[in-house]
Amino acid sequence: MKLRCGFIAGFFLMIFALYPQLKLWYLRGYEWQGHYAYNDIDEVAYAAYLKALIDGRPRLNDPYTNRDDLFEKTREESLFSIQFAAPYTIAIPSRILGFSAPTAMWLSGAIAAFLTGLILFWVLNLMLKDELFAMAGAILVISTGALAAGEGAIGEILEIGFPYPYFPGFRRYVPALALVAFFLTVTFAWLTITKSQLQEKLIFCTLASLGFAYCVFSYFYIWTTAFAWFFCLALVWLIARPTNWLQDFRVFLVLLFICSIWLIPYAILLSRRSHTLDQVQLLVFTREPDLMRLPELICFFLILVLLLLALLRVVNLRDRLVLFTFSLLLVPPITFNQQLITGRVLQPIHYQVFIGNYVTTFAFVLILGIVWTWLRQNQKNLAFRSAPLFLTFFGVFWGLVECHYTVKPLDEANVWRDEAFAVGKRLAEIAKVEGRKKVIFAPDLIQGDDMPTLAPQTLLWARHQHIFPGVTWQENKERYYQHLYFQGIDKEDLIYRIVDGDYVSIIALFGWGRHTDRLNPKYKPLTYQEVYEEAEKFEEYTKSFHPERSPDTILSYLVVPADWEINFDNLDRWYERSEPEVYGKYLLYRLSLKE
Description:
The chain is mainly alpha-helical. The protein has helices spanning about 1-30, 45-55, 70-75, 80, 85-95, 100-130, 130-145, 145-150, 155, 175-195, 200-215, 220-240, 245-270, 275-280, 295-310, 320-335, 340, 350-355, 355-380, 380-385, 385-420, 420-435, 445-450, 475-485, 490-500, 505-510, 530-545, 570-575; strands at about 285, 345, 440, 460, 555-560, 575, 580-585, 585-595. Helices cover about 65% and strands about 5% of the residues.
């Protein structure tokens, strides 16, 4: 019964994680080319880096510009090379087994979801001693995660927002694999404080530190959350002083010490980061409090609920499980307001969507479990005994609601990407003969952004290219200028795009922090003067443009949808186009510079 319930929880979470892929298979039918369905548009960058590792390229690589040799000389670290643990976890077995990057992406996502359900069931069963409730709780923690963040399906249901993102914790492979490690760390921490023998405590303390280490080299927002929680746990134990608290407190100090050691090599890697990394991450200096995030508000409410339950003598505030839950409830308010001490904020929306919400739902399930245990012991009503089944039904139901609403916005893009799979395979075949330094011009932003997952050639420009340190900010802008120029876009067209809210142009020319306040708490809307000045720079650049002045962006291939009508006069001024090769709905041209 015990193992069966854990597998059921893991199975349902795996179905949720596979839903976008199942939807793509359904939409494409026998025409499916072999691509993975992404859950989040940022997954293309993670998949591109994963493919580079599967292909045997070094940790310091840039799949968009192929300037790996530059990083080997400068030793500059990227966001991906610092957070290497998760991609290597997938890349090594994929290379051994011969899996492609697209296959590895959807398969690893399914495995991570299953393991998350299994581990959540394990820890909840250890805490509550009830297999059925642990199964229900494991499903609830994940299925209501987006809801606790104020994201996902609820926006469209209440007509207050956009149904996005899809199960944020299942974004592959970050934070999906890091989330597995986080809950495994929580499990080992619980075993640390519940085992009576000091030797056992130290063993599980060491295992918890290893789980933390995996988080450190996988995802910044999860390891910082785990570290904050360790401090909360030690602080709560020091204040409440449950039975044998001193021994536990000493173990906490050992845990913090070991975890601090893992931060030394992390700090060394971080000190070597590329300067472009700071521009992408939008570090803001402020000491303003941030108290209105939904996970925080839920935690404040649940703290009051715990205190009320203590007044009603339902719980004992010195009970280990109650204290453990209380420490979790302190984490979101601390992570969202650490700037009061550090003076720095780094895209707090990621705490809200990728980890703080799951800490909140986990604590909520623990409180439900504590109340359920009390009711089970004090009430004989059969209605109470059926509660775990009701919670399981609700968790599965809401998970399917999230699937239905939040996958729809990505259906068209996923079909589009799969339709481009054949031309990507053809370019991969060409690269075996002609090398990967040749440059592709891909006007289709979805297909172009996805290309490094399929083919190893260099991209003229892509939406996620600037996340890697292969190009400076200025070079990225100039590449985007060329991207527009070769499509026949002029100054007036660019002004219209930006004023109309084209986030691609805004990010490419002004940075991530200028298109929305979602990522940047110090967001400032663009002024028309800024837009006009940037359009002037674009026009000035194109008037003096010559391909040979930018040898790294001399084009070799053009990939374009067959049904697109694009003005290629500027491209044809400089390049000869071959007869197109047809791959489904895409045309592949070979380009050569005119004499």
